[in-house]
Fold this sequence. Notes:
The complex is a heterodimer. Chain A is an alpha/beta fold. Chain A is built from 18 helices and twelve strands. Chain A has helices at residues 2-23, 44-60, 73-84, 98-107, 114-126, 130-135, 158-164, 174-186, 200-226, 231-245, 258-266, 282-288, 334-342, 345-355, 371-381, 390-393, 395-410, 416-430, and strands spanning 33-39, 64-70, 92-95, 137-138, 141-142, 145-149, 153-157, 272-275, 300-303, 317-319, 322-327, 385-387. In chain A, the strands form four sheets. A five-stranded mixed β-sheet of chain A has the order 2-1-3-11-6. A three-stranded antiparallel β-sheet of chain A has the order 8-7-9. Chain A has a two-stranded antiparallel ribbon with strand order 4-5. The longest helix of chain A has 27 residues, at 200-226. Chain A is globular, with a radius of gyration of 23 Å. Residues 1-10 and 17-30 of chain A have low confidence and may be disordered. Chain B is an all-alpha fold. Chain B has two domains: 2-60, no CATH class; 78-308, MetI-like (MetI-like fold). Chain B is 75% helix and 0% strand. Residues 1-15 of chain B have low confidence and may be disordered. The chains are: A alpha/beta, B mainly alpha.
Amino acid sequence: xNVSFGRLARHRLAIALSAAALMAGVSSASAQSVIKWLHLExxxxxxxxxxEIAAAYxxxxxxxxxxxxFLENEAFKAKLPTLLQSNEAPSMFYTWAGGVLKAQMQTGxxxxxxxxxxxxxxxxxNSINPAAVAAMTFEDKVWAAPIQSGVVxxxxxxxxxxxxxxxxxxxxxxxxxxxxxxxxxxxxxxPIAGGGGDKWPLHFYWSYLAMRELGHDGFExxxxxxxxxxxxxxxxxxxxxxxGAMQPFQEGYLGATWPDAMATFADGRAAIVLGFENTAxxxxxxxxxxxxxxxxxxxxxxFPFPVVEGAPGLITDDFGGINGWVVTTNAPPETExxxxxxxxxxxxxxxxxxxxxxxxTIGAEVGVKDPSMAEAAAQKAQATWHQNYLDQDLGPNVxxxxxxxxxxxxAGQISPEDALQQIQDAFSLEM
Amino acid sequence: xxxxxxxxxxxxxxxxxxxxxxxxSNRVRGTWPVLVxxxxxxxxxxxxxxxxxxxxAAWYSFYNWNGYGLPTQWIGTKNYELIFNNGAFRQALxxxxxxxxxxxxIQIPLALWIATMVTHRIKGxxxxxxxxxxxxxxxxxxxxxxxxxxxxxxFGLVAGIFNAMGxxxxxxxxxxxxxxxxxxxxxxxxxxxxxxxxxxxxxxSIDKSVLEAADIDGATGWxxxxxxxxxxxxxxxxxxxxxxxxxxxxxxxxxxxxxxxGPSNATQTLVTFLYSFGVMRMQVGFGSAVGVVLFVICVxxxxxxxxxxxxxx
Lengths: 431, 313
């Protein structure tokens, strides 16, 4: 609703502007650059903030017009390859970095923004967290403007934990976690909300377990060619099978989507969810719960994914997304300038404050007002390693296999060896 | 035409040849403009939108290609090997077979039975026809979404019914043993109305006097159906089965919102398999190979069915 209204309003504005231009006898309308902004945001509040920033930019640059285009998440992923190679390519689009961005880079369909980043003595580059810029860098060129990064961790319902006699703050190891799950089950509470239908929510478990089992060096070695069939991966897969065998998830979780899982947690029908950094914010809770309210923030606790005793993975090794905007080859030259404006500290802080994200622009942290988000930001700040989502980092093919296998392992449908072999098969095709 | 001319031609060859030649040239002169005017647009469209993409798919299927740029990594028949070793593909094949089986064993008899009831001049027959036909009018995606909700074990209609009976609700779509039967239920619900309409049309074209004659001969209801109605409906039944087969091979847009092919690929069909393993994974080469296999299956089924069962229709 908001979107169409906004579009209509902008159209009217455009018509009014061009009419005014005609009357003045100036043909500036024809020289206008149009930045086509392809996004997949369904949250009207977030989109509203973007539209506001875009309008501010348009006001400062009358010769630039910003046009919003929407594609739903899955449709976006499916359509993008074709879209990028057509004349209808957008000027800028969303990215999760990783293997997909790399594949796009290799095609020449996207433009590196290194020059814009380094202009004025690197003003833009220096305004953004170096780790985030690094995540968008391949072959020493920057391929996207980072906007946000996140960290996945466990969130729990304090009330339900209390009922079961579990102390959430004391969970440090995987065994502690399994103990908590068992206690919750014994108390007749569904321990975990899971989205097995979408599969990727379960890949969080497999990824974290593998990170904890292998540690940074072991994991990097695997990605750089050693492959995914080693001992650490077998142990991680077995742990996911064992967790699944305890039947900790809500009934029917294998058919549940991520919104279903979030609703299960926000309604208080399950005690734990392994979710994004913004899980405990009121915006997300309101959007997720069936009653439109959700859990109050005081009732939500948070702990990082526990470590596996005796394994090299650290509790400060983080797993989470990193996002940015990619500029396409034929985009108008103003696109970079707009992105620089969009990611400046003031705008980033505004987005962070209103839309529950963790900005990657230096100085925009002041916008992170929500206490649970601040906690996530603090955890991120002392991270010893930040691993991007595997279904992005390993590229679309291996990533999807990882997702599929995570769901199969949790459901106990496959042995660790078979699952890892499938991942390895896909991986060896990419190498 | 050709027969008569070939018989009569030798008899008065010398006298008639110029006449035939003139007539032939007239005919050719008459058809050429038509050919030149009408063939190119259709031929062009068909070539550009059907023949070329098919050829391209066949070409891509020998590459490991993610859809960006041009395919360069030739891998021979590796994609085809991967397909036939893939458990999800076998499951998809079995599922498509199951859909055809259920169509023939349950859906078509059901449609025929209901069609015989709603063709009688009973009160509200038109009303019932409309009612049974409605699911078919509904968009596949909408039907999938509606049934996802109906089957939901938490808030759905099924949950409501089970809870009312004091039982805990099942999660059919999340259970790999049951999920595909739940999908089959939706398919029967969605498409039997279409087959019913085919049969209604077929039944209306049957001459009433034949049935009256059977009545006079003292045939029972069942005998009338089995000996008179069914044989006269033969071509409609064959057509109906044909549509069921083709429909099964095309089934995609209802599955995606309903189960997305899950859990554990238990509800994949050939097309959802192509989409999830080819398009979504950006394995365009592999997806093209699946497309080629699907194409071959379609062509073989369609032509052999037409040759064997529909040659007289």
